[in-house]
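Practice problem 4.
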């Protein structure tokens, strides 16, 4: 069910985004979603402590119903999309162009960094002699990254429209790699928090620019298929990255796992130069 929702949601967004100012619109949308992800847990925790465990579930259900009503009454030019796809059917083999394969490979490799930050980074920060931070300090760092990601998307979309999504992909991936290298060479929580601000911006830029590039280059009438394949390559990246990062962390060293992910991200930046068209 989650996969069905995610793919359908991405496809609907792709169809609703305007051709002019696409990055700006998508950036604002992602910023609102990200801020909801930050404020939601805080509100849920407060309501649970102040009232009961059931209150957040009722609120969540109510918000879901309101969202469903909004989607039902949303005007989408579905007839035009359906007609164009029926008149000019696109086979899967025709869809797998060099450009499309390029962004799929870029996204698949990017997931290595995503999985590292999601599953391994907190352990690294806690066990590393450079930091040895507490759970609270890790939470502050992750909050800084999320807050930076949410706010930066407000202007990163506009920047993507101006300089192009390819340049944004290349620069953001390279910046992620640089911040990873810096992370294993600094000490102290405050430098870590400062680095988190930059990491949040670079992560937001990478995610946003990849989606804008995909939407800008995909063929008309096959939005659902494109988003499905895109999501499947994300799954493939996660399938390989999780065990590899874990094995390197345990059998080599924690710093080696960071360097491994860094090499993947920087190589991905270089690949973007050749695999993606402007």
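Answer key:
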């Amino acid at each position: 069910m989650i996969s069905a929702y995610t793919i359908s949601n991405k496809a609907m967004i792709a169809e609703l985004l305007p051709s002019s100012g696409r990055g700006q619109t998508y950036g604002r949308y992602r910023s609102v979603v990200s801020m909801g992800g930050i404020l939601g847990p805080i509100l849920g925790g407060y309501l649970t402590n102040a009232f009961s465990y059931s209150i957040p579930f009722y609120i969540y259900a109510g918000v879901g119903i309101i969202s469903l009503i909004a989607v039902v009454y949303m005007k989408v030019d579905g007839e035009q999309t359906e007609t164009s796809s029926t008149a000019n059917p696109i086979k899967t083999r025709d869809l797998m162009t060099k450009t499309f394969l390029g962004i799929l490979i870029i996204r698949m490799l990017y997931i290595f960094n995503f999985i590292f930050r999601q599953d391994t980074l907190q352990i690294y920060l806690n066990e590393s002699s450079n930091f040895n931070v507490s759970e609270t300090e890790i939470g502050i760092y992750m909050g800084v990254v999320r807050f930076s990601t949410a706010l930066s998307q407000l202007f990163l979309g506009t920047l993507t429209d101006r300089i192009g999504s390819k340049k944004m992909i290349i620069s953001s991936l390279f910046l992620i790699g640089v911040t990873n290298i810096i992370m294993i060479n600094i000490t102290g929580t405050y430098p870590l928090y400062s680095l988190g601000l930059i990491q949040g911006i670079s992560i937001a830029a990478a995610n946003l620019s990849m989606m804008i590039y995909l939407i800008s280059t995909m063929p008309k009438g096959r939005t659902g298929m494109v988003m499905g394949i895109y999501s499947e390559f994300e799954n493939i990246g996660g399938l390989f990255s999780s065990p590899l990062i874990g094995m390197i962390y345990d059998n080599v060293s924690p710093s080696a796992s960071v360097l491994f992910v860094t090499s993947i991200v920087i190589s991905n930046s270089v690949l973007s130069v050749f695999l993606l068209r402007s």
